[in-house]
Design goal:
Structural class of chain A: mainly alpha
CATH superfamily of one domain in chain B: MetI-like
Shape of chain B: globular
Largest sheet of chain B: none
CATH topology of chain A: MetI-like fold
Oligomer: heterodimer
Distance between the termini of chain B: 60 Å
Radius of gyration of chain B: 27 Å
Number of strands of chain B: 0
CATH class of one domain in chain B: Mainly Alpha
Number of helices of chain A: 11
Helix content of chain A: over 70%
Structural class of chain B: mainly alpha
CATH topology of one domain in chain B: MetI-like fold
Radius of gyration of chain A: 22 Å
Largest interface: A-B, 83 and 93 residues
Strand content of chain A: under 5%
CATH superfamily of chain A: MetI-like
CATH architecture of one domain in chain B: Orthogonal Bundle
CATH class of chain A: Mainly Alpha
């Protein structure tokens, strides 16, 4: 009986690694025609022509990198700020409730961010935020390039903003966990030497927590680059050019799959789409391993972001 | 000499008077900015939820829950197939994922000396980090093209199950680790075989946590859209045939949101409101259960 039970548990449990292997193998098999036909040129060209059967995913990779970068750059300061406030300065009775409220953001489904994005965020970006950015930051040489063109709302920048909102809760939760794991003696020693609370935070707490915070940001990258629905709904899905501006409609890897997977009617077209999934898979495995290593350095053996 | 005098002077001055004004202002400014960041995060939640409620409420009436979607141009109808579909998908994916997740956790915690415990845990973590669209592509290849041969509700449920298993496994694992070793030892000392110890002592002790894990996974998967797009596909008609396409709330929201019709936009908000309320209720249940976790 004992043996039978152990074998049953083991059999069910082994389904987990088996699934992971099956995911990798099936996706690799389906992307094989594209892999062998295009090789590395797949990443070097933006040609995506189902008629001539030439496929290059450079524009999708570009769109993914740009939206993810915008998301992490916008979300990290807010998340780290909120996490510092909630662990060091907020009135004690408010700390846990506010942290919970921010965590609730993580439970809102991607599709609802997308819906809100289409009908609330896109008009606001088109009419208010993007023209304002153009009038200010757009005048700065070099950087101004990013804000050139006609603000349309449905573009890479809006995609990045939606992503920033979506990764905010996990960034905040993980940073908060990391800050809570900083030994109180770090703060006490600084304050004992006459430092203010803020000085103690910047000089004793943050340096100690730095690997963990970087880990949180990497985890944010992991969440953002594969996010599908919300981005697909606001990113434009039209242009395949790699330009200098954030105010152009673009495509991300995930939105390319969502939009074209069911349409792909030839073997090579289909295979090229699956190769996009293969790239997402590989990057996800890498990014998550790195993030977990970094966070474990500060927070001892607790699964990172177990809450979210 | 001067050093001694200075340190004596410091000793009698209360701490708050010692900070130079410049440093005090810097502190105030910094704390203000931090509070602002926190406020921004909270405000986002309030804004998004009030949009969903304000725009969604006008869509809600009895027909919204009891009727099926009307064709292009016709006003009225409801999202009943999507609501039924979401419940069906949750039930089936839960039935698949919860036993597997619990077994994986038992395997990792209770049989941790085994050679395969660590790989199971690691694999669960990696699957948890995969973009859900990738899981959709996998299930499409395995079931939609392979075993079933068409878009199907069952394929959608399997895709959701793949997403849920790591959540269940990791949460249950944490709870099992909280069960005191002395409980296991006591039961073993009384002569109970290991399987009985696990089923009769460890799991009942961790019951609240196990329920939490299951509910958490359901809340997570209820809003998933991308994998369903490639598996369950969506269906305007009521269907409980698991081998045919089935509708779900997130799919219905997507189709309506990207349509050009105002009435459909309103219905998308209405469906979002229903989805948010369902997830909110699940989350509330979660907190009630979590309160009575393992002592």
């Amino acid at each position: 009986m004992d043996r039978a039970f152990a074998a049953g548990v083991a059999a069910l449990a082994m389904l987990v690694p088996l699934t992971l292997v099956a995911i990798a193998v099936l996706i690799l098999i389906d992307s094989w025609p594209s892999l062998t036909t295009f090789g590395l040129a797949y990443f070097a060209t933006t040609a995506w022509d189902p008629v001539k059967l030439v496929f290059g995913a450079a524009a999708y990779v570009y769109g993914t990198i740009v939206t993810t970068a915008v998301a992490v750059i916008l979300a990290t300061p807010v998340a780290v700020g909120a996490a510092i406030y909630l662990t060091e300065f907020a009135p004690r009775p408010l700390r846990a409730p506010i942290a919970l409220v921010i965590e609730i953001l993580a439970y809102i489904p991607s599709i609802i961010y997308g819906l809100w994005g289409i009908f609330a965020l896109v008009p606001a970006m088109r009419d208010v935020v993007e023209p304002a950015l153009q009038a200010t930051a757009g005048r700065v040489p070099v950087v101004g390039q990013l804000f050139s063109g006609t603000p349309g709302g449905l573009d890479l920048f809006t995609g990045g903003v939606v992503l920033a909102i979506m990764i905010l809760p996990i960034l905040t939760a993980v940073t908060r966990e990391v800050l809570l794991a900083v030994p109180p003696t770090q703060r006490e020693a600084m304050i004992g030497l006459g430092a203010t609370r803020w000085e103690a935070v910047t000089r004793a707490v943050l340096p100690y927590a730095r690997p963990g915070i970087v880990g949180a940001a990497v985890l944010g990258v992991g969440r953002a680059f594969g996010e599908t629905m919300a981005v697909t709904m606001v990113v434009g899905n039209s242009s395949r050019d790699i330009g200098g501006s954030l105010f152009v409609p673009g495509y991300t890897m995930a939105s390319a799959i969502a939009n074209q997977f069911v349409e792909a009617d030839t073997e090579l077209y289909f295979s090229a789409i699956v190769e996009v999934a293969l790239v997402l898979l590989i990057v996800a495995l890498l990014v998550n391993s790195v993030a977990r290593l970094l966070i474990r350095r500060t927070v001892a053996d607790r699964p990172a972001g177990a809450v979210v | 000499m001067t050093v001694a005098v200075r340190s004596m002077a410091l000793a009698v001055v209360p701490a708050r008077h010692r900070v130079a004004p410049r440093r005090r202002i810097a502190e105030r400014l910094a704390v203000g900015l931090l509070a602002l960041a926190t406020l921004a995060a909270v405000a986002l939640l309030v804004i998004i939820l009030s949009y969903v409620v304000a725009r969604g409420l006008p869509a809600i009436d009895l027909a919204f829950f009891t009727q099926r979607p009307r064709p292009f141009g016709e006003v009225g109808g409801g999202v009943q197939p999507a609501i039924v579909g979401t419940v069906a998908l949750a039930a089936i994916s839960g039935a698949i994922a919860i036993p597997i997740g619990i077994a994986a956790a038992i395997f990792v915690v209770e049989y941790r000396t085994g050679r395969y415990a660590a790989p199971v845990r690691f694999a669960a973590e990696l699957i948890a980090g995969l973009p859900s669209i990738v899981i959709g592509v996998f299930v499409w290849a395995l079931l939609v093209r392979g075993l079933i041969g068409s878009f199907a509700g069952l394929a959608g449920a399997v895709a959701l199950a793949v997403i849920m298993v790591p959540i269940v496994a990791r949460t249950v694992e944490e709870v099992l680790r909280l069960v005191p070793m002395s409980l296991r030892e006591a039961a073993l000392a009384l002569g109970a075989p290991k399987w009985k110890v696990i089923l009769r002592v460890v799991l009942p002790t961790a019951r609240a946590g196990v329920v939490t894990a299951a509910v958490l996974a359901l809340a997570r998967s209820a809003g998933e859209t991308a994998p369903l797009l490639l598996t369950a596909l969506g269906n305007e008609f009521f269907s409980l045939d698991l081998l045919r396409p089935i509708d779900a709330l997130p799919l219905r929201i997507y189709r309506y949101a990207i349509s050009p019709y105002d009435d459909w936009h309103t219905k998308a908000w209405g469906a979002s409101l229903v989805l948010v309320v369902v997830i909110g209720l699940i989350a509330a249940l979660l907190r009630v259960v979590a309160r009575q976790r393992v002592r």
